[in-house]
Amino acid sequence: MSHVLTVDVGNTMTHIGLFSVEGTGTQAGTVELLGSCALTTRERITADEARIQLNQARSLMPRVEPDGVVLSCVVPTLTSAWRAALGTACDVRALVVGPGIKTGIRMSYDDPAEVGPDRIADAVAARATYGAPVVAIDLGTTTNFEVIDEQGAFAGGIIAPGVALGARALEQAAARLPVIELRAPKRVIGRSTRAAMQSGVVLGEAARIDGLIDAIFSELGYEAPIALTGDGASSLAALLRHSVTVDDTLTLRGLALIWRANVK
């Protein structure tokens, strides 16, 4: 049994999780979440600041020293600070997800090096948890779809603007539009500017996701289970026509599985 600290640095949020992991390499074994924490991603950060944030997050989790650390960072300017902080705070070298890392999943992609580490983690966890085929949808700054085909290969995906990004675009592009709360309105046809914006942004996102799921199934020629993760996954799931499984720890669990795949 190993303890693995996983860190997923996104554009908006940074998620940290602690897992107990059985097995090595692609060997089967349980991966159990022991604790997690969500932080706001800062635009700039030093290694010392990242270490302070990391220590605060770890104080909310069981007090165990990790045997391994794995880092996913989609903000290139923050990678070195987090790598240094993890190495100092945990006294182990962090495994940074990127080109050359073993994932245990075949990539049917024109250039696998282009696939972000969070997308890879989602694909790995979705296949390990739900089998193949499966579609993983991650809500954040962008809404990402990762498609695993019947052969268990990463077939590709979709990247679209996320809900919050869409709302900010409206607010910034139109001077008279207000800042809105990202929740579904009571009716589709808004009777106020805020309700109209909420309908367009929130209900529009649900409609777009449903439409893209239909398009994915049509292109594949078959349907697949759908795992939904990320910011506001539970609320959005209630608005979808398709049946989905809300999986809040999908990305972090994928990172733990990637760490295990690279353990000798």
What features would you highlight for this structure?
264 residues, Nucleotidyltransferase, domain 5, 5-stranded mixed beta sheet, 7 helices, 10 strands, Type III pantothenate kinase, ATP-binding, coenzyme a biosynthesis, ATPase_NBD, kinase
SSE blueprint:
Blueprint: E1 2-9, E2 13-21, E3 31-40, H1 47-58, E4 68-73, H2 76-90, E5 94-96, H3 117-130, E6 134-139, E7 142-148, E8 154-161, H4 163-173, H5 193-220, E9 226-230, H6 233-237, E10 245-246, H7 250-261
Parallel strand pairs: 1-4, 4-5, 6-9, 9-10
Antiparallel strand pairs: 1-2, 2-3, 6-7, 7-8
What's this entry about, in short?
This protein has 264 residues and is an alpha/beta fold. The chain has helices at 47-58, 76-90, 117-130, 163-173, 193-220, 233-237, 250-261; strands spanning 2-9, 13-21, 31-40, 68-73, 94-96, 134-139, 142-148, 154-161, 226-230, 245-246. It has two domains: 2-104, ATPase, nucleotide binding domain (Nucleotidyltransferase, domain 5), CATH 3.30.420.40; 112-251, ATPase, nucleotide binding domain (Nucleotidyltransferase, domain 5, 2-Layer Sandwich), CATH 3.30.420.
